[in-house]
Amino acid sequence: MLPEVAAVPYRIVAMETHDIRFPTSRERAGSDAMNPDPDYSASYVVLRTDDGAEGHGFAFTIGRGNDVQTAAIRALEPYVLGRDAEDMGARYREMIGDSQLRWLGPEKGVMHMAVGAVVNALWDLKARRAGLPLWLLLAEMSPEQLVELLDLRYLSDALTRQDALDILRAAEPGRADRIERLRRHGYPAYATSPGWLGYSDDKLRRLCAQALADGFPMIKLKVGADLGDDRRRLRIAREVCGPGFPIAIDANQRWDVGAAIAWVRELAEFDPWWVEEPTSPDDVLGHAEIARAIAPIRVATGEHVQNRVIFKQMLRAGALGVLQLDAARVGGVNENLAILLLAAKHGVPVCPHAGGVGLCELVQHLAMFDFVAVSGSTENRMIEYVEHLHEHFVDPVVIKNGAYAAPGAPGFSAAMRPESIAQYTWRTT
Ligand SMILES: [Mg+2]
């Protein structure tokens, strides 16, 4: 049974879902060592209130997963109908606390991503009603209000409520200056678009040069399918970018632990900035072993890390040099706040995963909030940038001089254009 809700200024009266799929596999955009033919897709949810407001959210999948993902989102309808987005700590905890749905995880996989989509839609609604972009809504909350949003269960050996308050209070001085800096300079971005595995050498060379010309401070290449190809492609990228320019590599979970260590050693002469997803995202000890073996090259992971508890273990085990949270993998904004605080407590920089459908649009808000109110720094921090599908969004990201411009429109930048929803809604015949 859901708890009764006190009198609220408005109520959510409708939840729509849309199964949206873009045929990206035709161009091999998004291709990597594990995912040769992704059709970038969104299981999309719209919440409507009795006073005419809306909240938009989505889970990102790469195609047929949408069948399952959209059904999972629908299962959460009882948690939003008749309710509001005012007490977001309560809304989030109710959803992850449904014991029958929780059995499917707990707090992992399709059901947890569905919670994330709905929680994020509620945040979009709340920020629109406040007339603020989400990053600023969060950045103007007090440390006490922010801590009330968290679920710190299973984290107390690494992050207590007092730790969270201490981190947030320590970052309070200077918040206003950092908001101004974001509005003036944006938040650094790096470019993944040059390095898809399915691209030709000529296209790689051209896109590396373009990324440099556009002012990106880092690029990333997909690796892990063929060592000879990886060495050739990294040599090309290094030639174009020059010595010392940060070039990260991403194996998308391709290797076992021993293979990861051996393969990365073969690529070490090209000076990779980090090695991303070297092995299974569930293998905490494996990541730690790889991190020790390939140091000082850092291990980065997070886009498939299923919840805050795995991140806690990764951080405590020294398995991560870079934490790549994802806006639509875990239980939405609330859980990502806990993950940002865990990273800050362990002194690990957060470089969010983006790309997909709308992940750049979402995650910029979390990184900007982190800069203003948690870490207070952009040193060694960048948000991934992938150059596709932004045209389908009402409030698409804006990249200037290799940085994300701070969003100004109210909300979470999650809303897709109605004509795109109509055109790319998946229809089985
Ligand atoms: Mg990746």
Automatic annotation (TrEMBL):
Cross-referenced PROSITE patterns: MR_MLE_2 (PS00909)
Source superkingdom: Bacteria
EC number(s) on file: 4.2.1.68
This protein's UniProt keywords: Lyase, Magnesium, Metal-binding
Domain Mandelate racemase/muconate lactonizing enzyme C-terminal: 201-297
Taxonomic lineage: Bacteria, Bacillati, Actinomycetota, Actinomycetes, Streptosporangiales
First-tier enzyme category under EC: lyase
Transmembrane segment boundaries: none
Native organism: Thermocatellispora tengchongensis
GO MF, one example: magnesium ion binding
Signal peptide per UniProt: none
Biological process terms in GO annotation: amino acid catabolic process; carbohydrate catabolic process
Cofactor(s) this protein cannot do without: Mg(2+)
Catalytic function, reaction form: L-fuconate = 2-dehydro-3-deoxy-L-fuconate + H2O
Name the UniProt record assigns to this protein: L-fuconate dehydratase
